[in-house]
Amino acid sequence: MSDLLVAGGQVLRPDLTVERADVLVDGETGDIADVAEPGTVDAPETLDASDGLVIPGLVNAHTHVAMTLLRGYADDKPLDAWLQEDIWPVEAELTADDIEAGAELGIVEMIRSGTTAFSDMYFHVDRIADAVERAGVRAVLGHTAVTVGKDDEAARADCQRSLDVANELDGAADGRVATTFQPHSLTTVGEEYLREFVPKAREADLSIHFHANETENEVDPIVDEHGVRPLEYADDLDLLGEDTYVAHGVHVDEAEIDLLADTGTGVAHCPASNMKLASGMAPVQALREAGVTVGIGTDGAASNNDLDAFDEVRDAAMIGKLAAEDASAVPAEAVVEMVTRGGADLLGFDGGRVAAGSNADLAVVDLTAPHLTPAHDLVSHLAYAVRGGDVRHTVCDGEVVMRDREVLTLDESAVRERASEHARDLVGRAEGDA
Ligand SMILES: CSC[C@H]1O[C@@H](n2cnc3c(O)ncnc32)[C@H](O)[C@@H]1O
Ligand SMILES: [Zn+2]
């Protein structure tokens, strides 16, 4: 790949100041080589950023990308009823081809809205990795183990699969895929399996990602059965640590917040999903004040119902203020930091900032829209006013994956058509009329 110059725009720097600069990308390494005075460097390929703001590619810290196939399939229910009555029955019919088609659709949606990296929990993960490879984005993937409702042999096989997939796929797609060991949650994976498999994940040096403290219904059974709060139980199982990030972290008390901070465990905050399923409000201000690294995730498109991280950023600021009952809580700078550097830190890659030596994962936001006028404060705009559709170009690992709103790595109309067909056939099978 030849060097690339992202030229003529303003640039969001790691300290969240904005300056006019050109960004030089090293085509060999896929890293940012220089952030230079405008007009002082040149490269064989140019990306026009005039009237634009160059920002780090956004990081979606928790999703189930193939659930785009179930967007709008079941709404307006709380988590347990939604999963048990609607989602799990239809997911039982999912094929590997369905998952690949759904993953491609979700990735196109993310590229179009400036997301260059995502963390995913699902199954048939090799096919999600194939989609990631073709699309040119970055992802942390894993096979999610669930043991409830399974006999011992099937439960152990599912946990073993989570370990095997994490070991096998790490480093795929030219290093753009990393992996995690993934127990689904503390209530859907039995204690005996966690006691057996978490040490194996630790021995293999795998990172760990699981749903935690999402609803009250998930907290109470753990307190009843184990006599401690969920994250204390997780700590006893050696699930917490620098290499762990949990999804949600809504119903956490002060001692659990301290435990997250003391162990270096991160949180992927999913505000839209938490609001839609009426799960509750995560104490984001308190988490950040305690020193917990917080990223932002969309969760799946069936509980959101889109994968636009800009929506999520705005929701995170709004609900963060409401949860803290303080309009100054979770300010614009905090949510912009969370969706860039915070997410990159959780996922464990060197990105989330426009600076020399960092991964060249970038988005260029078109500032010419009426809803972005005037431009008193571009960090405010990123938090409260920019929409996914304002993204003009997306770059990942130094490669332009969307130029002038055209996705270059995947055929968008074919992806949409294929996903629609798979979604229709899937629902037909699940409802017994295929
Ligand atoms: C077995 S793959 C992952 C599993 O998680 C389910 N899921 C989607 N959204 C949520 C959520 O908010 N909390 C818990 N589990 C969720 C998904 O449907 C898959 O079955
Ligand atoms: Zn989830």
What is the C-level CATH assignment of the largest domain?
Alpha Beta
User: What is the total number of structural domains?
Assistant: 2
Question: What CATH architecture label of the largest domain applies?
Answer: Alpha-Beta Barrel
Spans of at least 5 consecutive residues whose pLDDT stays below 50 are none
Percent of residues in helices: 25-40%
Please give the count of helices.
Answer: 14
Average pLDDT over all residues:
97
CATH superfamily of the largest domain: Metal-dependent hydrolases
Record field, number of beta strands: 18
Shape: globular
Amino-to-carboxy terminus distance: 46 Å
User: Which structural class best describes the helix and strand composition?
Assistant: alpha/beta
Catalytic activity: S-adenosyl-L-homocysteine + H2O + H(+) = S-inosyl-L-homocysteine + NH4(+); S-methyl-5'-thioadenosine + H2O + H(+) = S-methyl-5'-thioinosine + NH4(+)
Enzyme class: hydrolase
Pfam family, one: Amidohydro_1
Domain Amidohydrolase-related: 53-401
Can you describe this structure?
- This protein is α/β, with parallel strands linked by helices.
- It has two domains: 4-56 and 362-407, Urease, subunit C, domain 1, CATH 2.30.40.10; 58-347, Metal-dependent hydrolases (TIM Barrel, Alpha-Beta Barrel), CATH 3.20.20.
- The protein is 39% helix and 21% strand.
- It has 14 helices and 18 strands.
- The chain has helices spanning 79-91, 96-112, 125-135, 152-169, 191-203, 216-226, 230-236, 254-263, 271-276, 284-289, 309-324, 332-347, 378-384, 412-430, and strands at 4-12, 18-25, 32-36, 45-48, 52-56, 58-63, 115-120, 138-141, 144-145, 177-183, 207-212, 244-248, 266-269, 294-296, 362-366, 391-396, 399-403, 406-407.
- Strands 1, 2, 3, 4, 5, 15, 16, 17 and 18 form a nine-stranded mixed beta sheet that branches. Strands 6, 7, 8, 9, 10, 11, 12, 13 and 14 form a nine-stranded parallel beta sheet that branches.
- Strand 2 and strand 3 form a beta hairpin.
- Helix 4 runs parallel beside helix 5 and helix 11 packs across helix 12 (332-347).
- The chain is globular, with a radius of gyration of 21 Å.
- The mean pLDDT is 97.
- The structure holds the ligand CSC[C@H]1O[C@@H](n2cnc3c(O)ncnc32)[C@H](O)[C@@H]1O and zinc ion.
- Pfam families: Amidohydro_1 (PF01979).
- It catalyses: S-adenosyl-L-homocysteine + H2O + H(+) = S-inosyl-L-homocysteine + NH4(+); S-methyl-5'-thioadenosine + H2O + H(+) = S-methyl-5'-thioinosine + NH4(+).
- Substrate binds at residues 91, 184, 214, 299.
- This is 5-methylthioadenosine/S-adenosylhomocysteine deaminase.
- Zn(2+) binds at residues 62, 64, 211, 299.
